[in-house]
Amino acid sequence: MRKASLGLFLSLVTELLISGSVQAQSPFKTFSPSQTPADPPVLLVPQGTAADVKASEVQAVSDKDAAGLVVSVLRVVGIDDGQTQYNIAVDALRRTPKADSIEEHSSITEIYYIVSGNGTFETGGTIENQKVDPANVRVGPGFTGTAVHNGKTREVGAGDIVIIPPNTPHRFTTIKTEKLVYITFRIDPHRVLAMPAVDAAQATAAAAAAAAELKTIP
Hints:
Elements: H1 2-17, H2 55-62, E1 69-80, E2 85-95, E3 104-105, E4 109-116, E5 118-123, E6 126-128, E7 131-136, E8 140-144, E9 147-149, E10 152-157, E11 161-164, E12 170-175, E13 180-188, H3 197-212
Antiparallel strand pairs: 1-2, 2-13, 3-8, 4-11, 4-13, 5-10, 5-12, 6-9, 7-8
């Protein structure tokens, strides 16, 4: 069941990135595609290279014995479609029942995929006592504050997905299990993200190990 949910989630991410997943039936704001299915594909030179993230990397974050928030940036991958260049970052995060800070990111879209655990997640509204949150290479520029006015909450658990556009306040208001583990996919059109130095060596080694498992089919 979990593998099926993750497969569905990755399909959703792919559709979002190619801007063809949601059209007239969507209750959310969407944009018309710049190409139609009849348009010829753009030939990419050079060809892109796939990036792999192993389940063991996420499990290692889940297994860490620490209170509060544990974050590991697993990959930051530059994407070039021949017309635009942007980054996609993949993080694994682990939270325990401890107060969560309010975040609002100015330049990135985040997609949360809940791996395990349960909690209450809040999005939207207006940040009270808003102040600039110092930019960092993990999430880019944004804001924080002391409370959220008129936010919307929902219960989240394993297999659930939340899409968080730029300039959207968000936070976990409660963690209802011993821990909550989730993966974030960060879409970075303004290229404000990079691999933090603290995660670089581990991510490089993990990527190399994953690449070593690949087999070439002649």
